[in-house]
Amino acid sequence: MRKSRKIFLRNVRARDQLEVFLISAITSLLLVRFYLHVSGYPQLGGGDFHVAHMLYGGFLMLGAIVTVLAFIGARAQRMAAILGGIGFGVFIDELGKFITSDNNYFYHPTIGLIYAVFIALYLGFNFLSRPTQRLTSREYQVNALSQLEEAIIHDMDPYEKKRVAQLLHRANPNSPFTRILEDVLSQVEAVPAEPPRRIKLIMRKVDKTYKKFWKARSSSRLVQVFFIAQASLFMVAVVATIFNNFDQVRDLMLGDVRLYSSQLLMGQLASSIIAAGFVTVGAILLPRSRSLAFEQFRRATLINLFLTEFFIFARIQFGAMPGFLFNLLLLGLINYALYQEKVR
């Protein structure tokens, strides 16, 4: 009986490509909103015609599809991710027009819904490209073969050659295709690696600063204070907002669930409390295990990004942008710290 085969083979570069798509989409959305706000929301076309910028997003996504269908290689995939991301961001910006009977671009909950769409995409992309997943032997072989393109264009450096070798090492060693690819790789002459670029030199300095920071006695205390203060500020902001809207919150507590803004406010309060709980656990664990503590801080930050910021965006729209950017930066710093701890 013939063994069943997978229709789609997974790409080990998927995580990078999907992140480029998501970043491009979010950036284009914010730039479009900023431009429209500054320019006074101009109407393209004039008279009875109005060219919605959703159409430009559609053309950009079409360009991404054509690029990935007409060309091969990682460069084509990267270009498709950028074009597709920009197009999707421009497209989803007009969501309000298509969920309201009066085509209301300024429909108040739209920003919250768009934010929810991006959160769903983020979770879906992470599931598709989770680093812990085990690929099949055939998938490792196909990925190794696709990355050998660097050798054909005479641009494979030692790092890229080592990466292909690692993929083949995980494939079935008894497969004739694995042996053929290993023979081809052994005959590839890698070009000398380029001198470290400025960004790599900066990262080396950052790594040294990180290690030096943890040698100080007060380092754990400073990190504890920072995260507890951050969680406290979130709580204080919510309490202050509740105090300023006390009548609406009181009506909600009495059973009047029609007040949309009050529901969002209570959701923001609940998610802030949950995030503060993870921060507290992380602060307790920090003296014993930095990796476990940073994992708790990461969970708290993800809750703020996925839940707290969603409620804030839905309530005050782009007034939530500073908090979103702060949490995004904080998540990047925490991921960097977790990486350093794993290396250590």
Short description, anyone?
This protein is mainly α.
Give the low-pLDDT segments: none
Q: Report the strand count.
A: 0
Please write the string of helix (H) and strand (E) elements: HHHHHHHHHHHHHHH
Using the CA coordinates, give the radius of gyration.
25 Å
Largest sheet: none
> What overall geometry do the principal axes of the alpha carbons give?
globular
The helix fraction, in percent, is over 70%
Beginning-to-end CA distance, first to last residue: 49 Å
Q: Quickly give the structural class.
A: mainly alpha
Overall mean pLDDT:
82
Strand content: under 5%
Whole-number tally of structural domains? 3
Number of helices: 15
Give the helix/strand layout.
Layout: H1 14-39, H2 53-70, H3 74-92, H4 95-98, H5 110-128, H6 137-147, H7 149-152, H8 158-170, H9 176-187, H10 198-215, H11 219-244, H12 246-253, H13 260-285, H14 290-316, H15 321-343
Helix pairs in contact: 1-3, 1-5, 2-3, 5-14, 6-8, 8-9, 11-13, 13-14, 14-15
In words, what does this structure look like?
Helix 2 runs antiparallel to helix 3, helix 6 packs antiparallel against helix 8 and helix 13 runs antiparallel to helix 14. The protein folds into three domains: 115 residues, no CATH class; 51 residues; 145 residues. Helices cover 74% and strands 0% of the residues. It is an all-alpha fold and 344 residues long.
